[in-house]
Each structure stands twice: as structure tokens, then as C-alpha cells.
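Dear U.,

For the methods section draft, I wanted the exact inputs and outputs in one place so we can describe them consistently. I've listed the two proteins in the order they'll appear in the manuscript figures. Please don't edit the C-alpha cell lines directly; just add comments below if something needs changing.

First protein:
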Amino acid sequence: MISNFEKALNRDELPEYFRGSGIYFTKDPDWGTQLHVINWQGLCGFLKTQKNPVATLKNAFEKYLKTITNSMEDANDLLENIGCYYYMRKKIPTLSENGFDLIRDLSNNEKQIISNCMEFLHQEIYKTNNAQDIETYNRRMTKLANDGGPNNFRSL
């Protein structure tokens, strides 16, 4: 059986896969939103079968990054994907093979895309001055850092 990630790879639909749009949407039963971690579990299952899983992941994520805009939807999806990577990285050795780090090993240009988008998200969340949104954002950032992700997206 072909996995959704393999399908996205074959169809060149990697941005859709990482966003969880169209056929790659996996509904969170509690919130009805995209449940990114399910897609990451499928991605990891596929990567385990590859001869060069790190290159496959890096190339796929780079294609996704090229489509990122400074919008709340893209920023939230990007943060979720980065969070899923670091969460899964602790469980799946393939994701950190030979010291590989998906975010830290990107080109400076790709890191800048992430930094700009995460700065946009930070500004938009704090601009609303909604205590619940700010608390949720801060929790997400703390969890990401605790899972081994960057502490500060402004200096990737």
C-alpha cells in the first residue's frame, strides 16, 4: 500500500502534504483541524524504508518552504510541522541520522523564510492581545524548545 507521503512525493504535492490540505487532511477528532502529527507518523514510516531518508525529508521540506507566505495559516502550519519534526525526532532515529537536524541544517535562505514567518506569527499573536492565544503560543514554543527545537527563530 502506498502511503500518503509517497503519494505526495510522486505527485509533487509536498506543500499540500505538509499543510494537510485536500486528500492529505487528517482531522483532529477534538477540534476538527489538521492533525499534523498523523501525517508525520506516515512520513516517518515511509522514510524508514528509504536508502537516504535524510535527503528525502530535506528535499521535501525545502519544497514546502518555498511556498510559505506570511499568513496566519502558513505560519501556524509551519510551526506545527517544525514541532512535529522535533517531537518525532526523539522517537524515530532516522530523523536525526548522523546528527541531522532538519531546521538547523537548512540553507541560510530557508532559515530566513522560517524566521520571517515565525516573526510574523509572533507579532500577529501579540498584536491581538488575546491572553488565551498568547498562552497557547508560548506553550507551543516551550514544548518545541523542550523537544530540542530552536529556542529563538530570529537567530536560526
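Second protein (the one for the lower panel):
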Amino acid sequence: MSEADLDRVLEIGESLPEAPHWKASAYVAAMNPLQIPRRIALVAVERESDALAGFLVAGMVAAEAALETIAVAAEAQRRGVGGRLLRALLEELRAEQVTELILEVRASNRAALGFYRAQGFKETGRRPRYYADPEEDAVLMGLNLA
């Protein structure tokens, strides 16, 4: 991800009700290599059109990483963009010797839960009433990278 990507990243994030609606400053901070915790911010580009189709941000602390956000433009969903983003992240995390990737997802987000399970994530717990508007549990998931 670069600053040139920000307008499209914000557009995608705002267009998806299930995506966190971060401000531009949060993405700028995620791209800063001196930021603590260190983050990885990636974008996916459509092969045919060269258009930015999705993005993700993950934070790293020691040997653990947390997937903070992943979003794919509605018109690019179900085309493998999310999988490509996740595979690129896993490659970077393994190079950094990260051994576990964790995340949380709304309990009602069946598409995301199915995607993460298909990628090998396992449910590790729940956070009752973690999300607001609407209030909802978070499903905690993890993927062992070792």
C-alpha cells in the first residue's frame, strides 16, 4: 500500500458495511515502517484492469500477528482477491518469523467465517458483545504458521 492508494482504499472500506471505516490517517500510520507495533499494509490489483481491488492491514508483535482489516471491493469479490491478499501476507509473516496469525470477525459474517475456515483458520474463542451497532459477538480465530 502507498499513499497513492489511499483514495481507493477509503472508497472500498466505506462501501462495505462489514469493513472497519478507518480514517486516512490510520492507513498512513499503518504504512509507516517506524510505527509500533509494526504493520504490514498490502493492496491487491485486478490482473485485467490494473484497478485496486482490495487491501489488508496486519499488525505484528513479536511472533504473533493480528489481521486488523481485509476488504475486497464488491465488484471484485469471489474472484480470489482475498485469497491472494492473505497468501501475500502469510509469505511476509513467515519471512518475519511470525508463528501465529489471529483475527476477530462478527459472528453473523458467514462469508468471512467461511473464507477464514477455508484458509485454515480455527475458532479459538468468542468475545461476547464485542461489536456495537449492532451489538454482536466477535469470533476469535487463529492460524498456526510454524
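Candidate sentences for the figure legend, describing the second protein: The first helix runs from residue 6 to 15. Residues 28 and 82 are 21 Å apart (CA to CA).

Thanks,
Y.
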